[in-house]
Specification:
heterodimer, A: alpha/beta, Rossmann fold, 3 domains, four-stranded antiparallel sheet, 13 helices, 10 strands, 49% helix, 19% strand, B: mainly alpha, two-stranded antiparallel sheet, 11 helices, 2 strands, 64% helix, 5% strand, flat, disordered C terminus
């Protein structure tokens, strides 16, 4: 079963007014557990709307969102019907009144917990920092979850280690940190809620190359340790290629492609007609192949390219030694 | 947030849109005075027709205009009810008597109905007329430009009118930006489980802290960036500044001006000549 799923989801901003605009249309997509999926698309392709639908900030104007197979906006009535049929199937005798109560509390809990189960790091998350110290700021999410003091402290220690913030930085005001540190502190605030699904909207936007790398390393470390499903929205094909297993391409509010990295980047022409591109290095490799070098297909990162080129270089020099 | 229409510019190229902003501000004042000059049903009817003509000429759709009344429906309803029930019943044609309290008879009278209708028409014309002149057909920049030009004489007594005008246009310019910022920050905190709708007053007020602090921080940053950018381009205040869009008083401005004065005069005339029509005190 897919961890998180959209079924025929659509979203319209300001429906029924002259400001009406369709952001997403009939999007059906399933995100597998433990996979890292990259979401790419142009500005206005619906990426940000999509991620806000996934964590319940926005309610789809049509279609549904499922987390672990349950509609996150399920009505009390539907939940009750589901519980009832379940009880009937198992032959259990449950009072209707209890079921109704159960359904109501289920829906309330879903509404409240969706943001904790699907953690969303918004674009430029450092804008959300507000507490006196970084430590307190990271504690904001876990405190809203109603966790105990000890549990919160343990989580702060854990995420601080993961994002690379030391004790001294934790006790500083978030406004005294550098840009990259601020970004990591803000991400830590979401990680501390230990969501099942982590969504990051342009996590590296506006950072220098070193900052980008640090941020992506944090995400990778977190994923390795906590085994979460991760969705990353990005403009950068290079980042997609380096960090994602699967890629979802959005264009004009619809799903253009969704598949493994190889499947998506294999369709250069399809991407190009929508003004998107494959990683630079893939272009370079294709050019080399065009010149007659035996470069293998499906190279998307600089590391792989280096390996491939070195292999060719070795075989050429090996041949050279033979003759 | 994005659907706020009250106080929004409606882009079009009608005659009203092209009028001189200075003139339009004065016209709005003239118009407000006219609505308060109205004393009887005939005058109100005349003014109402005047507003309809203005709306037609401005080419702002009726749907958009009506939306500007949405925010004041409560005020309108309140004024209507008060006038309907609390108009003096002495020497009036009682239509439906409710009862006597403290020696006063309460009920719905013919006069009360007329008064309530007039009051509603007064508020509606007032709002539609001024929003048509000042917001739907005038950009905030034009408004501040016009205002600063009208207040220019104050510069002689050392009131920094130009600085105030600049402050006002910057403030107006940043309202949508700030509301966007607020929405973004609210979403970010909601994603961390912040709850803005539950709890008592104190809890709700405390829930605003995570929004207000980042909002202040970003506003100060924006302010500083803007100041630096303005200084880099050599901004300084003072009356030797030239303008990109010079205001020119044209024939059409004079004509509209005369029309509006005529409208006010007509209202006064109707007040006098149609005195037989049910009377209404001029003050609310």
């Amino acid at each position: 079963m897919a961890k998180l799923e959209l079924r025929n989801a659509g979203f319209i901003y300001n429906p029924g007014t002259e400001f009406q605009s369709v952001a997403l249309e009939d999007v059906s997509v399933a995100f597998e557990e433990n996979a890292v999926t990259g979401i790419i698309g142009h500005t206005g392709s619906g990426k940000s709307t999509l991620v806000q639908l996934l964590n319940g900030l926005l309610t789809p104007t049509s279609g549904q969102v499922f987390l672990d197979g349950r509609d996150i906006h399920e009505t009390k009535k539907d939940r009750y019907a589901a519980l009832l049929s379940e009880a009937e199937r198992s032959g259990e005798k449950v009072r209707r009144h209890t079921l109704k109560k159960q359904a109501a509390s289920d829906c309330k809990a879903m509404k409240r917990n969706i943001c904790f189960r699907v953690g969303l790091v918004m674009q430029y998350p450092e804008a959300q920092l507000f507490e006196e110290t970084v430590r307190k700021d990271i504690a904001f999410g876990p405190a809203n979850m109603g966790l105990s003091r000890e549990e919160i402290d343990a989580r702060i220690e854990k995420v601080a280690r993961l994002v690379g913030l030391n004790e001294r930085q934790l006790n500083k005001s978030p406004f005294d940190l550098s840009g990259g540190q601020k970004r990591r502190a803000a991400i830590a605030g979401v990680l501390a809620m230990e969501p099942d699904v982590l969504i990051l909207d342009e996590p590296a936007a506006g950072l220098d190359p070193k900052g980008r790398e640090t941020v992506f390393d944090c995400i990778r470390r977190y994923r390795e340790e906590c085994r979460t499903t991760v969705l990353i929205v990005s403009h950068s094909m290079e980042d997609m290629a380096a960090y994602c297993d699967r890629v979802l391409v959005l264009a004009g509010g619809r799903v253009l492609m969704h598949g493994t990295r190889e499947e998506v980047f294999g369709q250069i022409s399809g991407l190009e007609t929508h003004g998107l591109d494959v990683p630079e290095i893939t272009h370079l490799m294709n050019m080399l192949r065009g010149r007659g070098y035996p470069v293998p297909d499906g190279i998307y990162t600089v590391e792989d390219a280096v390996k491939a080129v070195m292999e060719i270089a070795h075989s050429v020099s090996g041949k050279g030694a033979d003759t | 947030m994005k659907s706020v229409t009250m106080g929004r510019y409606y882009a079009s190229n009608s005659v009203i849109h092209r009028l001189d902003p200075r003139g339009k501000i004065v016209l709005a004042i003239l118009f407000i005075v006219s609505t308060f000059l109205c004393k009887n049903v005939a005058a109100f009817a005349f003014l109402f027709v005047g507003v309809l003509v203005l709306a037609a000429v401005s080419r702002v759709p009726l749907k958009v205009i009506l939306r500007s009344l949405k925010g004041v429906t409560v005020v309108i309803a309140f004024a209507a009810l008060l006038n309907l029930f609390l108009t003096s019943t002495e020497n009036a044609h009682m239509l439906w008597e409710i009862g006597t309290w403290n020696g006063r008879v309460y009920g719905i009278t013919e006069e009360g109905i007329i008064k309530a209708v007039c009051m509603v028409v007064r508020i509606i014309t007032l709002i539609i007329g001024t929003t048509l002149l000042l917001t739907y057909t005038m950009t905030p920049i034009e408004l501040t430009d016009g205002l600063s030009r009208l207040l220019w004489p104050l510069l002689k007594i050392r009131v920094p009118v130009d600085l105030f005008a600049m402050m006002m246009s910057i403030a107006l310019r940043f309202i949508p930006t700030l509301s966007e910022d607020t929405e973004r920050i609210m979403n970010a905190q909601k994603a961390r489980g912040a709850n803005f709708s539950e709890g008592g007053l104190i809890r709700k007020a405390r829930a605003l802290v995570p929004i207000l602090i980042p909002l202040f921080v970003s506003s100060f940053k924006r302010g500083e960036e803007l100041a630096v950018a303005m200084e880099c381009r050599g901004y300084h205040s003072g009356d030797d500044r030239t303008r990109l869009n010079e205001l020119h008083w044209k024939v059409r401005d004079t004509v509209t001006f005369i029309l509006f004065v005529a409208l006010g005069a007509a209202v006064v005339c109707i007040n006098i000549f149609c005195a037989g029509v049910p009377f209404l005190p001029a003050v609310l």
